[in-house]
Amino acid sequence: MILRIVFPFSIFVGLCSAQTIDQRLDSVNLDSKAPEHAESAKFGIRPFQFVSEQEGASLGFRFYQPDSFSPEEKLPLVIWLHGQGGGGNDGRNVNIKLVRLLIGPEADEDTKCFLLFPQFQKGDNWWHYYDEKRGDQTGVAGAMVLRLIDEMCEKVPHVDSERIYILGASQGSLAQNIWFEAYRNRFAGSVQFAGSNPVDRLEKDWMIPTWVFYSSDDRVAMQSNITLRFINRMKEWDESKIRVTQYSDAGHGGTVQKGLSEPDWIEWLFSQRNVKDPVIDEKKWAWIFYGNG
C-alpha cells in the first residue's frame, strides 16, 4: 500500500516574491551613495532615488515592501512626512517607532503594508512659501512625492490604490491639508501629529478622515490657533471624519511619541478606504508646489 501525501497547491504558489520598486519603476533607482541608516536597514528599508521628468529633479526616499505576497494580495501604502528639521539624505526621516508598530516583530498581521519615507533636501519644503528668515522655500519635493505615489499605484500591482494613508509630524503634518487642495481624493486617511493647517481655502468635499494629535502647550500646533481652527472646521462639516487626541503637557516632539503609542489609531486608519477617483487641480498644484499663479 502506497501512502500518498498531497500538499495543498497554495503551499507552493500561494506566496510569491515581488519585484523591487526599482525593478517596477523606470524612474526609481537604488541609491547606493545614500548614507547607511542602520536602524531602518534592520527592517529591510532601503534608500532610493526618484527622478521626476516633470520637475527635472530627484527625490530621495526610503522604502519598505514585504518579502512576499499572495497572488491577488493588495496592501496599503503608508507615507510618513518628516518635519522641517528632517531634510537631507541621511535617513533620519524614517520614524523607527512607526516602523516597529507596523512591520516590527510584534506587529499585527493586519498591518502588513508598504512604507514610504520621502526626504526633501535641506532648505526645501513640502510646499512652496516665503519665509522671512529662510527666504523662498521650494515645494517641488511635495509634487514629486505625489507623482511617485501615482506611479506606485499604477505599476506596483500589490499597492491598494484605495488605501493610501498619509501621516506626518510638525511640517509634515501641516503639509497634508495643503496637499489635499491640489490633489483631491488621492488619500484614504490622514494622521496629523503636532500641527494641523486650517487652510482657509479648504472645502468640505475635499476632506478625508483625519485623526489629529496635539498638545495645548505646543507653541507650533497652537500658533494662531491653527490646529483648533482646523478641528472646529472639520467638526462643523462632518464630525464623523475627525478624531482628536489632546494632551496638556506633551510639547511639540512629545506629541508625536505619545500619539504613536496610543491604541486604536492604527486599526482606525487601516479601516479607511477611498473609492473616489483622484483629481488634480492644475492651478492649485502650480501655486502650492511652484509658487506660480
Concise summary:
It is built from 10 helices and 15 strands. It has 293 residues and is α/β, with parallel strands linked by helices.
Quick one: how many beta strands?
A: 15
- Give the name of the CATH architecture: 3-Layer(aba) Sandwich
SS content category: alpha/beta
pLDDT averaged over residues: 90
Distance between the termini: 82 Å
Q: What is the CATH topology assignment?
A: Rossmann fold
Estimate percent helicity. 25-40%
What percent of residues are in strands? 15-25%
Number of domains: 1
- Using only C-alpha atoms, the radius of gyration works out to 20 Å
Write out the CATH superfamily name.
Alpha/Beta hydrolase fold, catalytic domain
Number of helices: 10
* Main sheet record: 9 strands, mixed
**Text of the CATH class:** Alpha Beta
Strand order of the largest sheet: 2-3-4-7-6-10-12-13-14
Order of helices and strands: HEHEHEEEEHEEEHEHEEEHEHHEH
For the structure shown, list the relevant keywords.
30% helix; Rossmann fold; nine-stranded mixed β-sheet; disordered N terminus; 293 residues; globular; alpha/beta
